[in-house]
Structure formats: structure tokens, C-alpha cells
Design a protein that fits this description.
By secondary structure, this protein is α/β, with parallel strands linked by helices. The chain has a single domain, classed as Rossmann fold (3-Layer(aba) Sandwich). The chain has eight helices and seven strands, in the order E-H-E-H-E-H-E-H-E-H-E-H-E-H-H. It has a seven-stranded parallel beta sheet, with helices on both faces. Strand 6, helix 6 and strand 7 form a beta-alpha-beta unit. The protein is globular, with a radius of gyration of 18 Å. The structure holds NADP nicotinamide-adenine-dinucleotide phosphate (NAP). The site of NADP nicotinamide-adenine-dinucleotide phosphate has 31 residues, from helix 1, strand 2 and helix 4. NADP nicotinamide-adenine-dinucleotide phosphate (NAP) binds next to helix 1, strand 2 and helix 4.
Amino acid sequence: MRLTDRTILITGGSAGIGLAFALKFLELGNEVIVTGRRQALLDRVKAEHPGVHTIQSDIADPAQVAALAARLKAEFPKLDVLMNNAGTGAPRNLKTPSADLTGLTVELDTNVGGVIRMTSSLIDLLSANRGTVINVSSMLAFVPVPALPIYSATKAAVHSYTQSLRFQLEDSGVDVIELMPPAIETDMTSDFPEGTPKLTTDELVRQTFVGLKAGTLEIRPGQTNQVAFMRRLAPELLNRQLWRASKVMVPATAS
Ligand SMILES: NC(=O)c1ccc[n+]([C@@H]2O[C@H](COP(=O)([O-])OP(=O)(O)OC[C@H]3O[C@@H](n4cnc5c(N)ncnc54)[C@H](OP(=O)(O)O)[C@@H]3O)[C@@H](O)[C@H]2O)c1
């Protein structure tokens, strides 16, 4: 993937992994636009990094996605990279009924619905600009962490969707890349059990850029490659190990 002279939208670029990539792409001289729901966070990013464009937008809301796409087409017609990064996840207790059937599927609406909506809304512009889609799934696309059952399922769905997208776009000039991080030090993993191995966002960016420069379409940093191998060699063992390690995270009741 060409890493300079691009116009790049990063959903969920106001914190964590998205922000780390936004700053790296900015450093390389690209035009970078980030989105997020919390305006205060976007304002902070803008104050600290005036070169970054910030737009408030919720990828789980179809109307906001449509409005964002219209604005981008008007204000950034050279947009040629969509990094579908925004995501959310929570430990879930599946053993009792949930009192909030809307909240129960928020991860699906965001992690799957958001990726599909954003891609659909911008695919005409990305095709016209012979662009790149980067979908951020997870190591958990290969094997679930049972304490994060819905989140893990969403990442397996993004992995599947990304493969189909790549085939459908193969003659369109649009490259489709999947980034599959292991656990990374961000707000999302702050409650993970002590001792969970995590990469820093800097190390994730470093390893990912090696893959992007080499033209790798499925980038598997850190532990992800080993997990991909292990799930073929000893899937039962791996599943049980992840259940044992994550059991402590399961809440006492369904949320
Ligand atoms: N951290 C990890 O260990 C890890 C590992 C593998 C994959 N990933 C994936 O990497 C991506 C980024 O994770 P992260 O760890 O950087 O998370 P994070 O630190 O919690 O940051 C999430 C970012 O996404 C934004 N966001 C959340 N929901 C959104 C929505 N509905 N619409 C627009 N923006 C939204 C957040 O801002 P607002 O809350 O203000 O909207 C924030 O900017 C996610 O897709 C995650 O699943 C993370």
C-alpha cells in the first residue's frame, strides 16, 4: 500500500489504535480525518494535533453514516483510504436473560453494521480514487474469548465479510486489507486480567507498517500468527485455554 499522499478516514480515530495510526499517517504527510462519538475527545485531538481533521459521527447510526459520507464526498473528494477501526466490546454473561435486548447487540451494530455501512457509503468514491479499505478485525476472529462472546463473533464476521469484499473488488482497483491485532494496550483492554500479554499501540503500528509496505493483505501482528496456527493444530486446547484465562471476566449477571 502506498503510504504517502493519501487522504485517509479513520473511524474511531480519537483514541487508542485509531489515534495511533492517525498520528503515524499524519507524520508521513497524509491528509487524515478521524471520527468518534465524543466531541470532547475529538476537540482534544484537534487541540493537540491541529493537522488532523475531526468529525463527530456514530458508525452504529445509519443516518449519521449517510451524512458523514455526503460530507466527505463534498469536502474530501480525494479520499482514498477508509480505515474501519471504530469498535466496542464488553464481557457478557450468557447464562441469564438480558434486560436490555437493544444494548445486547450494540457490538453487532457497531463492529459489523458500522463496517458494512461505512464501506457501502464510500465504495463509489473509493473505487473512483482506486483506494484502499483497511478493516480492523482481531486475533479473536480466529478463536473466541468466551468471556467476550458477542465481540468475538463480530470479529469473525468482519473477517468473513472482508474476504468477500476483497473478491468482489478485485477488478475495481480497490485493495482490501485486514488488520488482525492481538491484545493491545488501550482503554478497551484496561480491565483485562493481570498478566494478559499486550502490545503497545506504537508496536502495533510498527509491525502493521511492515505489512503495509510489503503489500500483505492479512496483517497478523504479535501473537495473532501463532493463534492462527494453533487453532488448526489444537483447536480444542486453544479454546479451553482462552476460556480458563477469561472466565474471571464474566459478569455476575447478563447486562
Ligand atoms: N485493544 C485491543 O486489544 C484490540 C485488539 C484487536 C482489535 N481491536 C480493535 O481495534 C479497534 C480499536 O480498538 P481500541 O482498542 O483502540 O479501542 P478504544 O481505545 O476503546 O477506542 C475506540 C475508538 O472508537 C471510537 N468509537 C467507539 N464506538 C464508536 C462508534 N459507534 N462510532 C464511532 N466511533 C466509535 C471511540 O470514540 P467514542 O467512544 O468517542 O466514539 C474511540 O475513538 C476496534 O475495532 C477493536 O475491536 C482492539
